[in-house]
Specification:
It is built from 9 helices and 15 strands. The protein has helices spanning 14-19, 36-44, 64-71, 111-121, 133-141, 154-157, 208-217, 251-263, 292-306; strands at residues 4-8, 29-33, 50-57, 61-62, 77-85, 88-92, 103-106, 126-129, 147-150, 161-167, 174-181, 193-200, 223-230, 238-245, 266-274. The strands form 3 sheets. Strands 1, 2, 3, 4, 5 and 11 form a 6-stranded mixed sheet that branches. The longest helix is centred in the last third of the chain and has 15 residues, at 292-306.
Length: 310
């Protein structure tokens, strides 16, 4: 039996479309799951080799369901990321007119991406959230709702038709998806990498977040995502999900993570993996004096001082 990848289903989601862009997907059994949580749990229990789930979109930011699942539970690691351009279609049962649409459904992350379109075209329609956009299409097929915001490609799968297409409030909207597996050695650096971590402060104090971010800033590491998530321990208790440029094998990144480990209550490493937005030629130049060679030269200087060689 081929190894399997779990993904946020059912069939016909943007997640499935993005997953099929990975070359290795052609050699895996692709199994849809009803939620992000169940897909990730399939990896934790060994039912699946890896899970493919949405983690961020360019309109609303981080997908909180995915972030919270990576923060809690048995540790998992991110191995790949994929960016997919997103535009929605309004899927309806055949014969439905726009004036017939009184209820619409989609994944909660879709709502900020079509809010203005709904205000202009369906101002009185009632929004109902679904586990995924494809699941919303399935519910329309069953007669639960009048319309669903989903990919146009899902129409044929659920016996629907696209009443409207190219729906989006923001031009060039994208969603970021990640391939998540059990912890193992990260892949070798490519020169265009990203490192993801979750950090918890020891206590709440003035300048606390500045101290955490300073571990990156003093080493010239650019942050690509910073999002707070409640820990569940009460109002004001947060952890921070961070994406940083670079790979854990880079001296500057390794030192930053070591500094965080020293001052934080807890640090969860979520992986170092190739970036999907740029190749090596597109990576921003390193901040001055932050290359591996610079860090090695500084360490040699300290060693010389310790030996009395100035």
């Amino acid at each position: 039996m081929p190894a399997s990848y779990a993904y946020l289903g059912p069939e016909g989601t943007f997640t499935e479309v993005a997953l099929r862009t990975l070359p290795e997907a052609a050699t895996r059994e692709l199994i849809p799951y009803v939620s992000v949580q169940s897909a990730l749990d399939a990896v934790r229990t060994g039912e699946a080799e890896a899970a493919f789930v949405p983690i961020e979109n360019s309109v609303e930011g981080g997908i909180t369901t995915t972030l919270d699942e990576l923060v809690a539970g048995a540790p998992l690691m991110i191995y790949r990321e994929v960016l997919l351009s997103i535009t929605f279609a309004l899927l309806v049962r055949p014969g439905t007119k726009l004036s017939d649409v009184k209820t619409v459904s989609a994944h909660p992350a879709a709502q900020p991406q079509v809010r203005n379109w709904m205000k202009a075209n369906l101002p009185d329609a009632l929004w109902e959230s679904a586990a995924s956009n494809a699941d919303a299409a399935r519910l329309v097929q069953e007669g639960r709702y009048d319309a669903a915001f989903a990919g146009e490609f899902a129409a044929a799968r659920y016996g629907l038709e696209a009443l409207e297409t190219e729906i989006h409030d923001a031009e060039n909207a994208q969603t970021r998806f990640v391939l998540v597996g059990r912890p193992a050695r990260p892949a070798a650096p490519t020169g265009a990498d990203k490192t993801s971590v979750v950090i918890w402060q020891r206590d709440d104090h003035p300048g606390g977040l500045r101290d955490l971010l300073g571990e990156f800033a003093t080493r010239g590491i650019n942050l690509m995502l910073l999002q707070s998530r409640p820990t569940g321990a009460g109002i004001g208790n947060y952890c921070f999900c961070i994406d940083a440029e670079g790979h854990i094998s880079d001296r500057r990144v390794a030192e930053a993570l070591a500094g965080l480990k020293r001052i934080c209550l807890q640090v969860r490493f979520l992986g170092s993996y190739p970036r999907a937005d740029v190749d090596v030629d597109g990576v921003r130049p390193l901040f001055p004096a932050t290359s591996d060679e610079d860090f090695l030269a500084a360490a040699d200087w300290v060693a010389h001082c310790q030996d009395g060689r100035f």
